[in-house]
Amino acid sequence: MSLPSLRLKSNADRRLRSGHLWLYSNEIDSKLSPLSDFKVGDQVIVETASGKPMGVAVMSPHTLVCARIVSRETEHRLDKSLLVHRLNIALSLRERLFTAPFYRLVHGEGDLLPGLEVDRFGDIVVVHITAACMEPHKDIILEALLQVCKPTGVLWRNDANTRDAEGLERYLEVAYGEVPEWVQLLENDLVFVAPLLQKKTVGWHFDQRFNRLQAAVYCTDKRVLSVYSDVGSWAIPAALAGATQVLCADASAQALDALEQNAQLNDIGETLLCAEGDVLETLQALKADEERFDVIIVDPPAFIKRKKDLKTGEAG
Questions:
Q1: What is the pLDDT of residues 259-315, one digit of tens each?
Q2: What kind and span of H or E run contains 301?
Q3: Hey, which residues does 44 pair with through a beta bridge?
Q4: Domains and CATH numbers, the chain
Q5: CB 297 within 8 A of CB 238
Q6: pTM of the entire structure?
Q7: Radius of gyration of the CA atoms of the chain, in A
Q8: Phi then psi dihedrals of residue 144, to 5 deg
Q9: Which of 20, 15, 17, 209 is nearest to 110 (CA)?
Q10: Which of 30, 49, 132, 188 matches a 20 to 30 Å C-alpha distance to 169?
């Protein structure tokens, strides 16, 4: 069965030719391709203004980013076969870089699977669907992951607030097998525990692993402040790099409890101190006490998500 066409306006194909995968609603020729004709998840052949095919895209017709390219070959559609192919490529790349199966397996557009992120915690796979266009394809995503990774458990970690802008509901759901509440992981030769089944107040972000490794280099013989420290993914490497002291500030008691557990797992002595409470208030108190730090590591949540957040975000 042939796919419908999505016709672009004149010159709207320039970004796609340079490798970009997104299509914006104002780039579509609405007379020839009304967005109202498409449903979320529909697949289309993207065409230049002159009718030349450029690839296959998946539709999110109600959002600003109305379509995302999933294949440059018009005969290759988003199906289980394509997903297995992309996952195998992603897996082979990670296995060249990492000796243990703890990493971000799929990083959206970087692995030619826009709107999809997959984190691997050993035998557990955690999936984040960040774009509306991928949500209707959950079943084949799961099938492909089971075939390629053979996990004992798969978790839909679809509770991020970024889904709101895509018109998607938030949910946290075990998709397959059994998923533990907490998981032990290995990153940069260090052992950590992190929550999987908690609300998205604490967690683990594999995409920062190389930044964490680099940041630790600057912490030897230094007094360090880790702001929004979470479970210690930045603070633990800093302490093990030889920091004289690492003060960890976070509002979550649960996160700081996990941080202390991670400190014990990595045999860290009295180097780490924790300051529980509103982080901005903690910073004000440190300023008032004229505390000084050689290195400050800040890993905050998004302060400015909408225009109305500008004032408070800038203050943060």
A1: 999 999 999 978 999 999 999 999 999 999 999 999 999 988 777 766 777 777 777
A2: none
A3: 57
A4: 5-71 (2.30.130.10), 80-179 (3.30.750.80), 206-315 (3.40.50.150)
A5: yes
A6: 0.89
A7: 22
A8: -65, -40
A9: 20
A10: 30
